[in-house]
Write the structure tokens for this entry.
Amino acid sequence: MSRDIGETEFQMVILRIVATVAVGLCGTLFAGYCVHFDRKRRSDPDFKMRLRERRRKQAAKEAAELSNIPDLSDATAVQNFYLEELQRGEELLTQGDYEKGVDHVANAIAVYPHPQPQLLKVLEQALPQPVFQRLLNKLPDVSQHITDAQSRKQEVVAAAAAVAAARVEMPELSKPLDLKDAKAMQRVLHEKRARLNLRG
């Protein structure tokens, strides 16, 4: 009897060792495959070109998003955006395209200048319950997106102003700059002005 217990314990220890070695081997093979695939991907001559194109498309998409969102300090632009988005949303909802319709209505509500509870009560009565629930779930994300886009828009304007000022102060900067360079230039100009103010 005790011999059977000893053999089963021995078999369990051997099984644990085999399992540990198998897991380690699988992990090593997976890591090796990842390294191989990454090297193969990076050595592809079209990789950098595709990467640049993807980044260019992303930048164009962000610029298009920024151009659609109104300046929240301009009441007329906000009102026009609100009316356009609400109208688009209503049209899409009547056509049965609930996902896009909810997106547009959520955009309109996110910039709505008056208290939202009144508008939400009207929408709750007008929309089917699942669509209204989807709208409520989407509102926080859309509001955050609009706030982020507004701050990015302000960053772009500030960076463009810094680049213009840098080109005036340093004419050798005639080449076009991307946003990253513009932000760096903005910091350099700020530091330079701070030093000049300390001296004066």
User: Anything to note?
Assistant: Residues 2-43 form the longest helix (42 residues). Helices lie at 2-43, 47-68, 75-95, 98-110, 116-126, 129-169, 179-199. The radius of gyration is 29 Å.
